[in-house]
Amino acid sequence: MHYTPSFPLYPTMPPPSHRNDQYVMKVSGEGTLSVTPDRAIVVLGAITESKDVSTAQKENAETVSKIINSILRLGIPKENIKTSDYRIDIQYDYEDGKQILRGYKVTHLLQITIDKIEQTGLVIDTAVNSGANSVSAIKFTVAQPNIYYNQALSLAINNAQQKAVTMAKTLGVTLNQIPNRIQEVSGAPEPVPYQASLYAMSAATPVQPGQVEISAEIRTEYSYTV
After folding, report:
1. What domains lie within the chain, and their CATH numbers?
2. CA distances from 225 to 14, 21, 27 (A)
3. InterPro entries given for it (predicted)?
4. Is 15's pLDDT higher than 60?
5. Residue 193: which of 140, 149, 144 has the closest Cα?
6. Is there a contact between 207 and 194 (Cβ–Cβ < 8 Å)?
7. Closest CA to 35 of 187, 120, 146
8. Checking CA distances to 133, which of 5, 7, 26, 92 falls within 20 to 30 Å?
């Protein structure tokens, strides 16, 4: 008696036209908004040098205290002022191949968040007049970046959908308008740096924030039928 199985002993792969990966298109989407910044982040402070480390520290502390007090008088909240860098470096001279101690350099930099962006130049000038001799960075941003980032994210999704529709029309296929998968590629927006030279500062430093670009990027997959 012979037994005949009801299924093939050697399963076969479906023809290429029936495979799932033939019905998926992958597209990316980008969205960008140009926003006027409403917040500035400034890094400035004092650098002092002396042959004696204690003297260098003392002079630096006195100068930084003057800088902080002068900025507080402008109405900048105390919590908007914090130390971003503090270090003591040993300095040497070299004579006839020998290392000779020259002294010490103390660096104390403050990060100041300015919520009234029009005060940026005033804050810098006030700090310089109070003894600041280093302005290492000015960055512009917005107080609520996530609001604008979510708008850019929406633009990115629409951009990806438009690409998928265009591709489907060109191929003559039917697109499923609801994506199978969406992946967020970009992250939270970062402040935009502004290069500033201390020696370019004047009694009324003009600081122009310009526009901040907030971008979002996604990757997505759409299914379609032929």
Report:
1. 20-35+146-189+215-225 (3.30.110.170), 39-141 (3.30.70.2970)
2. 16, 11, 17
3. 26kDa_periplasmic_antigen, SIMPL/DUF541
4. no
5. 140
6. yes
7. 146
8. 92
